[in-house]
Amino acid sequence: MPGHLRVRRPSPTTVSFTVSNASPRSNSPAKILFGIQILLRALLFCCVITALSARMRNLFLLQSDNMIQWQAIWSSPVGAHVCHLVDKYNPWVITVVSVLVIYGVFKRGYTEESLFVIRGFGIQTSTSSSTYLSSAATRFIPTTQIQDIVIHEAFKGFEVRFYLAVIVEGEPDVLVVFPQLLPKREILEEVWRGSRRCLYDAKS
Amino acid sequence: MPYNIAMVSDFFFPQSGGIESHIYQLSSKLIDRGHKVIIITHAYKGRTGVRYLTNGLKIYHVPFFVIYRETTFPTVFSFFPIFRNIVIREQIDIVHGHASLSSFCGEAILHARTMGLRTVFTDHSLFGFADAASILTNKLLKFTLSDVDHAICVSHTCKENTVLRASLDPLMVSVIPNAVVAENFCPLSYTPRTHDQIPISPADPRPSPTPIGPDDTITIVVISRLFYNKGTDLLIAAIPRILASNPNTRFIIAGSGPKAIDLEQMLERNVLQDKVEMLGSVRHEEVRDVMVRGHIYLHPSLTEAFGTVIVEAASCGLYVVCTRVGGIPEVLPQHMTTFAKPEEDDLVVATSKAITALRSNKVRTDRFHDQVKMMYSWRDVAERTERVYQGIIGDISPSEFYGHYPEQGWDLSGDRVRSFALIDRLKRYYGCGVWAGKLFCLCVVIDFLIFVFLEMWFPRANIDIARSWPKKQPMDKPRTHTIRNNRT
């Protein structure tokens, strides 16, 4: 899925460019699909938690405290079935499988990278993390340190790709904007024009 | 019609040399003529990625493994994915490879033919036929040239050599010599002429600026890399004898290489340090400053396809003494040079003859610069190369391009317009030799399969098209127009 661009201008002196390779959720089937996906993830998460607690019930989940009747749960038909199922497998297998499922549940299915420009203040780049658990990696560069914003080409793997880069004063390497998605040239040119207009053009 | 041309070679700046400056000058003149030119070479130390030179000349320094004297490791196929990407994003029509020892060039020509592009190859050097290394190189050259659309050589000797080595049809090989930027090689006391006619008549009003007296010191300049093939051994043997038989003679030797140590030993053995100055290696832009310090340029090379340096020397107003090898006799007119056989005795005799001629003020070295300027220009080289491009693309008809001689009893036979069909290409490769032919066919088939695979794996639609450098208006439009008229 190639990345697509979303531009927002909350005020005349700010502009935010977001490139994302998520499929756009504009029509109702896509929205329903997204809802089902979230439900499925929640369900999977619950299943894993149940299986894990059933496995470890002998350690600390036997005494019935005043909140949950653990004994009753494990002896109910469903509980007994789960316990039976879980006890059949090696604890290592269960650990590995549940770690994988939890990773899958929290894995973000798309990458979103953005460039946020504020006139007279600076720019902030951000790259979404690979899971829902950690927050996006951001970097802020004040206007005084920005030497230029350029589009250039570089070798990446077996390809030559365009990239948008910010030349930061006093740093040996440039800062690449949208480093993971590396969107197409048309998108980069639009972002380049928009961000330069916002940063340097006094009239707009 | 403007073309998009990719020059491919292992040799390009920052390394300096004849091939490198040839590619650069030719490319910039082609850009002046309205074409788009990019250069693909391997990464040099501290120089990787995409760069632009003056004029909007774009250079791809592809990261690659270098084995020997800045030549990359020949892997046949590994260059293909990135080459295909570059060719598609730059919308290349013609791939022009340089130098037969460059494995980049050979691979690029193979892949370009697989992709259905026209290819040109320029050979810059001469090779032998006898020893094992030459046989191997010649097989590789044959592999490269079996399917090339046209080849260009820098001299007629070089053409003969290439045609024999790669068993080519001579009509598919053009001769386009190198050139020099005459403005960069002016003599010390040079005044530009007001009228651009060369006065060939002896009644030139200008007197010889500084007549050389019988006791004045004559300086002989040698600028060459000190390798065996550049004739350094000959030079080592000849210097003491030249200095002994001609008093008031000095040598300036610039350049470095494995033979430098032998040269220094000779100087110490004969105690000639006060008569021979060794400068070490000089940069290309300093060559002129070294040349103008001398009167004679001595070029003892054992093999040379063209010898740009002797044109540069003549342009600086030096009288040239050189060996009669390779393409050298084609380069300069008789009155600028004294030729010697590539042996010690004859070199000494020829140098002494040149010194005598200079002392008697018979040679008008002050006119050399204007004459060289009229003979060699890169614009002319670019025009002739452009005609080759037109010929292979099909903008001029094959009979006009290859010549049409029905009255001489033979005519265009065989198909010189190389078709891209795989079976035709395989036929051409199969004729390369008993075993080599089969091996080459195997390579071509694998290359084709890789191409099909790449088309599926990295579809063309996903490759960004690069923007071209904004073109400036061609400055010499009326001039090219008149040339076209003269030709028709």
Structure description:
The complex is a heterodimer of chains A (204) and B (488). By secondary structure, chain A is an alpha+beta fold. Chain A folds into two domains: 4-22 and 110-200, Roll (PH-domain like), CATH 2.30.29; 28-106, no CATH class. Helix content of chain A is 40%, strand content 28%. With 488 residues, chain B is of the alpha/beta class. Chain B folds into two domains: 4-179 and 378-406 and 414-487, Rossmann fold (3-Layer(aba) Sandwich), CATH 3.40.50.2000; 182-375, 3-Layer(aba) Sandwich (Rossmann fold), CATH 3.40.50.2000. Chain B is built from 17 helices and 16 strands. Chain B has helices at residues 18-32, 80-89, 103-115, 132-145, 156-166, 232-245, 260-270, 287-291, 308-315, 328-331, 344-359, 368-375, 378-393, 398-402, 422-430, 434-457, 477-487, and strands spanning 4-8, 36-42, 49-53, 57-62, 66-68, 71-72, 94-98, 118-123, 150-153, 173-175, 218-223, 249-254, 276-280, 296-299, 319-323, 337-340. Chain B has an eight-stranded mixed sheet with strand order 3-4-2-1-7-8-9-10, sandwiched between helices. In chain B, helix 3 packs parallel to helix 4 (132-145) and helix 15 (422-430) packs antiparallel against helix 16 (434-457). Chain B starts with a strand and ends with a helix. The chains are: A alpha+beta (204), B alpha/beta (488).
CATH topology of the largest domain in chain A: PH-domain like
The total of helices of chain B stands at 17
What is the level-2 CATH architecture name of the largest domain in chain B? 3-Layer(aba) Sandwich
For the record, the CATH class of the largest domain in chain B is Alpha Beta
Q: Determine the strand fraction of chain A and express it as a percent band.
A: 25-35%
Major sheet characteristics of chain B? 8 strands, mixed
Q: Give the full name of the CATH homologous superfamily of the largest domain in chain B.
A: Glycogen Phosphorylase B
- What's the average pLDDT of chain B? 85
- The appropriate CATH architecture of the largest domain in chain A is Roll
Could you say which structural class the secondary elements and strand pairing of chain A correspond to?
Answer: alpha+beta
| Uncertain runs of chain B | 199-205, 477-488
Number of strands of chain A: 8
